[in-house]
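Quick question, first post here. What does this chain look like in 3D?
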Amino acid sequence: MSDITSLVREELSAPVDPRVAAMAAAIAARYPGSARAVLFYGSCLRESELDGLMLDFYLIVSDYGDAYPKRWMAIANRLIPPNVFPFQHDGLIAKYAVLSEADFDRLNGPETRNVSVWARFAQPSRLVWAVDDTARGRAVTAVARAAPTLLAAAGRIAGEAVLDWWRRAFSLTYSVELRAERTTRAQSVVDAEPDRYVRFGEAAAAAIQAEASGGGWARRRIEGKLLSVARLAKASLTYAGGIDYLAWKINRHAGTKIEIKPWQRRWPLVAALTLVPRLMKSGAIR
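> Answer (accepted):
Ran it through. Tokens below.
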């Protein structure tokens, strides 16, 4: 059985559509001197046709102070990571989240109750750009922390099959954040690549040093929902067109037909904070 770091290194190095690699390099070019690595993740990994889709990237930087010319942007990224920005390149659209190397490593590990990063990077991703071998190695090390952290946090039920462990773990993480995806999403993620999750699950289980209780999820849910609202509020200030992206994503995943009014674009923070309670009440997001 391969160890988790070897599996992650192999998966991160798998080839991607050349347009994805070009977009990653273009994102990194916006941050000369601070860009360390760019990772590609999300549902678009499984898509052969990228036109019309929103690609997802994480940009890893050396330091927030070096990444931004405006001090308040660095402070916002440090206090409520990550900052998220829209991006277009060669006819494709994307969004990218910015984290420092230190935060990327920390947020993939058990020292944080925040599920946002380790839940995503326990899933497949690709390292599509790195400034050098040191940055590449640090990205691999950070991502290798994600699957053990996720599965340890869920705790394993006696006799539980590894795929069921994954499905239950993802269901727990989906319950923590404000999500527009259907309740079957956690199962479909695993069922899309069952062999992959068996390999990674067995390797992650071997990497977990202590028996995990699987507790603390009630607190994670409270903190996670509040953090989601805080990120949404911050995105209304840092993400141009963020309110339109929010509507697009909810419509895509929940089948709703939200239309953003002119006043909501003018006052995106107020719009976001008034939309969330209504969407939660209707069940469009949970």
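Residues 219-282 form one domain.
The chain has a mean pLDDT of 85.
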